[in-house]
Known about the structure:
Elements: H1 2-24, H2 28-59, H3 62-91, H4 97-117
Helix pairs in contact: 1-2, 1-3, 2-3, 3-4
Amino acid sequence: MIHLHITGWVLALILFAVTFSLYKNKKQKPAKVMHMITRLSYLLILYSGGDLFYNYIVSGTWNSYMAELIIKAAAGLWVIACLEILLVRYAKGKPTKGFMVQLAVSLIIVLALGFGRLPWGFLPL
């Protein structure tokens, strides 16, 4: 499930970049199609992330890493929210600088906790 989750958010970030560039180049129709596909990748992330969260609870690591898991889940939801808000705001011509900063901060938190702090990440503890 970890590989599905990583694949899902890498796919979402790539689709976000493509959709953002389509909106930037004033290609509204292809951008809307890509935006819908990006939203489908959010569902994949939510499903696999929820399953990972459940597996952390069931495996017994919940007691040791409860705070980190809750913060990572909240920051992960905030990453998805920032991606969606950025696309919608840019499509409407509204400023996006504040949400770009929020996306960067929440993405750093998620990656640091997911790969560096939690036991099923790539980096040793």
